Amino acid sequence: MKKELSTLEQGRLNKILSTRINFGKELGVLTWKEAVNTIFDRKYSALVPSVKYNRIKYNRMSMEEQKEYDRKREIGKMEYYFYLKGKQTYIEVPKLLYLYADFPELPMENRVYKIDEYHW
User: Fold this and answer.
1) I need a surface site. Which of 19, 96, 101, 115 has the fewest CB within 10 A?
2) Domain coordinates of the chain in residue numbers?
3) Tens of pLDDT along 32-66?
4) From residue 4, how far is each of 8, 9, 82, 98, 99 by CA, in Å?
5) CA 81 to CA 1: how far, in whole Å?
6) Handedness of CA 63, 69, 71, 73 (dihedral sign)
7) 28 in helix, strand or coil?
């Protein structure tokens, strides 16, 4: 892990790590801790729009509302992902879990992007 966690953050991380997730028939039900240690091998983070663009909603807004909507879209937010070993499949994960995992960051040229990232 890169930085020292506070007691509160450590408690949150422990809760996340003990959460059980169903990864389907192939992998079954695993805790996040088991999954990080066995089925994921790479991670990456991406800046995405904080509000998804909705053309119909946008066209019905007043000029002031459109300006506010555009401002919110430009701000962006960070999302964090893990890749499954040997596959181009990824899953979004919480930031604390992303910081906990110590496998390598995926290089920019090898990333698979969401459709929303093309239309930002």
Assistant:
1) 115
2) 7-49+76-118
3) 999 999 998 889 888 888 888 889 999 999 999 99
4) 12, 9, 22, 14, 10
5) 16
6) negative
7) coil
